[in-house]
Amino acid sequence: MIASDLRFFFLANGTYLQSLFTLINLLVLSFKGLAFVYRRFFFAIFSMFTLGCTATLEDFYGMSKFKRADLVCSHSKIARERKSKIEELSYEVRETKLRVDKKKELLDIGYRVHRHCRQVPVQSDTNCEVKDDCKVYSYTRVCEETPVPIDYQYEEKKLNQLENNLASTNYSLTEAEINWEFSYAKCSDKVRALSVQESFSYYESGREPP
């Protein structure tokens, strides 16, 4: 039953989509009974085809009320904005974590390495008698690295700021994810109560039921 229902989401034929459909079947079987995991996975896969595959009213008649609700509530304008916000916050969390880790590593090492580079000649005219008159044929880049002790008080203050930012962003991300789940569930309940034509009208306009 699940395999048959999944076909309605992919509004095209071909070997590539058939292979993708087979892969989804295997993953669904692996997560059988874990509805939440299945739904989040399927959202990610289906979003890849949003721009290339647009459902028609005929497609909606062939779908269950749950699939119609998913199309309306996952791809409305406000749903895309919510998901975009989650992606932005997730990226910010990852970047801040990297900065925290680097700052901790710096505090463990206790110094920064300052690098100074310069160009020096590597080949001159060996036949010339006066050094200043010798022709230079090429240069090479020579660098010197000098360890410089850090200001522990300053760096620890920066670390505390980063950790506070990370905690705040994590909180915002969790809040955004909860808001997404709640809004999706609320929208889905409303769309399932609509007729096929009514739900298609919302899908086509990129709106959600009030």
What does this structure look like?
The protein has 210 residues and is an alpha+beta fold. It has 3 domains: 1-54, no CATH class; 67-110 and 152-210; 112-149, no CATH class. It has 8 helices and 2 strands, in the order H-H-H-H-H-H-E-E-H-H. The protein has helices at 2-6, 15-30, 35-47, 57-61, 65-74, 77-109, 152-192, 196-205; strands at 111-124, 136-149. Strands 1-2 form a two-stranded antiparallel sheet. The two termini are 32 Å apart.
Look at the helices and sheets and give the structural class.
alpha+beta
Number of helices: 8
The radius of gyration over CA amounts to: 29 Å
Order of helices and strands: HHHHHHEEHH
Largest sheet features: 2 strands, antiparallel
Within the largest sheet, what's the order of strands? 1-2
First-to-last CA distance: 32 Å
Unreliable segments (pLDDT under 50, ≥5 consecutive)? 1-52
Round the mean pLDDT to the nearest integer and report it: 79
Q: Beta-sheet strand percentage? A: 5-15%
Helix content: 55-70%
